[in-house]
Amino acid sequence: MDSHLVGSGLARIAVVAAIMSLVIENGFVYDPINKVNGEEIDIFVRDGKIVKEVNKRKARVINASGMVVMPGGVDIHTHIAGAEVNTGRLLRPEDHFRDVEIKTSITRSGVGRSIPSTFTTGYRYARMGYTTAITPSMPPLLARHTHEELDDTPIIDKAAFPLLGDSWFVLEYLQDNRIEECAAYVAWILKATKGYAIKLVNPGGLEAWGFGGNVRDIDDQVPHFSITPREIIRGLCKVNELLGLPHSIHVHTNNLGKPGNYMTALETMKCVEDLADGDKPIIHITHCQFSSFKGSDWRTLRSGAEEIARYVNRHDHVSLDLGQVIFTDTTTMTADGPFQYILHQLSGNKWVNGDVETETSAGIVPFRYRRKSYVHATQWSIGLELALLIDDPWRVFLTTDHPNAGPFTSYPRIVSWLMSKEARKRTLNRISKKARSKSPLESIDREYTFNEIAVVTRAGQARILGLKNKGHLGIGGDGDISIYNIDPQEINPSKQFRSIRRSFEKAAYTIKDGEIVVKNGEVVKSLEGRTFWVNPRVSESLMGSVKQIKQRFQDYYTVQFENYPISESHLAFSSPIQVEASV
Ligand SMILES: [Zn+2]
To answer: What's the whole-model pTM score?
Structure first.
């Protein structure tokens, strides 16, 4: 076993110190946060951090001439660990047979195409130059398992979002307008589960699903509570601001995956408009492609991307990620239990449904997106339309909602679509004729620049997550760097989109905390990534309210209050972020 995988934090620090320093010379650097746009500058790293300079004679030097240098990739939304992912692996042995990673002297073996095992997940991200990935749906009661899998995922840094939009305690606090007590409870949950941000999935709908139902829109009443999805979204948005969390609320909208739902997405963004403080987005709509459907049924489905983009272009309190569809076999998994049930009925594919106490649900269904399907091809178009019609790349991020719309290993293909109208046209020519005739893609000329690619795959994601040392190459930043074998002065991405894709598939170098972990697309070193979590400090008097919940567990619950907290020592490499709440 690789000692770095099991090493303690102390052992790791010793390793970093031994590496000392690194220089990356002559590369074309894209560091949008520091407004570096393809300039040939040298990057220096010492003890895992970007520094102003190092003694070159004592440093390891990488000659990156003729190559692109970017901060390590950051993925804001990818299902890589926890109960639903593991259940998906159990449901789909066929996903594993076809895709095997063989053990090397450095890496461990693994399997899985759309739901790779933990080791394989870490290696595959690192090979593409990614160094941070966030898993977005952690039931609080199953946090221990989620973190155990994250600990088992090598190289990359990670974090997990606890699901809070259907928690009974949250619903109770919010229906009684006890926002501050709700904030104290959320602070406690984040600390107890070592969570990073507030995740809402089909708010209110999962509670209804516990009784076989759903909510119809954001003003529908949640059964057994006097609250609506709108009030849950607004309430948790206020809680988020009171706690001063680094990220905004992270929302999977109601009615996801249903024709006509672009209206629900618009209503969801609008419903917190008045809470915006102009500083930074206060709501993140995740995998927005799945929430941008016009039409009244599958036959009349059309893209609602233009309306969504128009709204986002006029309002800066919103950010979103794509959930870009890839034509392939994959596995859908979400806490949106009722949606997964519909997908099971539509596809006839096998299905697992899960329910976690009084917190959340989940469903998993294998799925194949087909080029010739009108619906799937329209979905493919919608994702790209969002990316191309939203003007500000700092608020729209490249994801596939892995593995829901496709595996994360497809990101380089999406990069090539974004950078090349020709690449889009090639795919358009092969999709359903009806979808092609309705898609506006052919009339959109925009092609992303390298700088914009750096924004939507790392800088923007790090900024919106509030990860201050990620997504940039400024002094004090983490020594997470990717180098791609692309010469921006030689290559024309618009025409040579295949080379672009291949280069982003296999980083020339991936550097993590100042160590070379990937060279020429192969993992050359495996080390342990951090787990970020947020520890909000709330006043003692307010925290007292959380203790009242304890009695309820004793009186009514099959689990105990004490089942929730995970001690920090349980995390292999804990990296808490302290925030001072304003309550
Ligand atoms: Zn998701």
So the answer is: 0.95
